[in-house]
Amino acid sequence: MKRIGILISGRGSNMLALADAVKHGRIPNAEIALVISNIETAAGLERARELGIPTFVHSHKGCTREEHDRAMAAELRQAGVDLVCLAGYMRLLSPWFIREFEHRILNIHPSVLPSFPGLDAQKQALEYGVKFSGCTVHLVDEELDHGPIVKQSVVPVLPGDTTEMLSARILAEEHQTYIEAVALILSGQFHIEGRRIIES
Q1: 1-101 under CATH 3.30.70.270, yes or no
Q2: pLDDT digits (tens, 9 = 90+) for 60-82
């Protein structure tokens, strides 16, 4: 049984999608072992508790990035986590943490990377005038929104779209794409060639 740790900072909608997929076997032979947040009031924490998932809160205030990450890593190791999933976690991870869980951290970003990394990707897409946007699940490395790409999905940008409208359409794709990516990585049926994830 593979064990997943999820890091959140807010509502945790992708966390809930992953939990539902685990429950219904769409991510086979897995369980959500722990949900961690750096924000005590993150709405996703209560949702996780309602589902019976253990939670841990550790504020990033008053400590260095690495000190904060070492505290999270200790909890993840104690929970026997095999894969760390970022689900709306709004902090950069320290190089130490990334090395500690090398090739075992996934992130989902609301654009088709390498376009529009960083914050407000949907707003960036609308301002740039692209015809398509979407989402990307990638392995995390030490650069922002950069690691090898596991899965991508594309959505059209429609005339009259607002940031909220585009975000909602991308989010629906995020839930499905993240599930597929997590299932693939936990299956081990892939290898990495440079920046490419090759399914076996």
Answers
A1: no
A2: 999 999 999 999 999 999 999 99
190 in Cβ contact with 197 (< 8 Å): yes
Q: Tell me which H or E stretch contains 169.
A: helix 163-187
Instruction: State residue 127's pLDDT score.
Output: 98
* Positions of E strands within 41-131: 55-57, 83-86, 105-109
Q: Which residues contact 88 (CB under 8 A, 6 or more apart)?
A: 8, 9, 10, 11, 12, 13, 14, 15, 44
Evaluate whether the domain defined by 107-200 bears CATH number 3.40.50.170: yes
Whole-angstrom distance, CA of residue 86 vs CA of residue 130: 26
| pTM to 2 decimal places | 0.96
Catalytic residue among 58, 109, 138, 191: 109
Q: How does 90-118 read in b/e, with b if 16+ C-beta sit within 10 Å?
A: eeebbeebbebbeebbbbbbbbbbebbee
> Is residue 24 flagged as an active site residue?
no
Read off the pLDDT of residues 133-186 as tens digits, 9 standing for 90 and up. Answer: 999 999 999 999 999 999 999 999 999 999 999 999 999 999 999 999 999 999
Sequence ranges of the domains in the chain: 1-101, 107-200
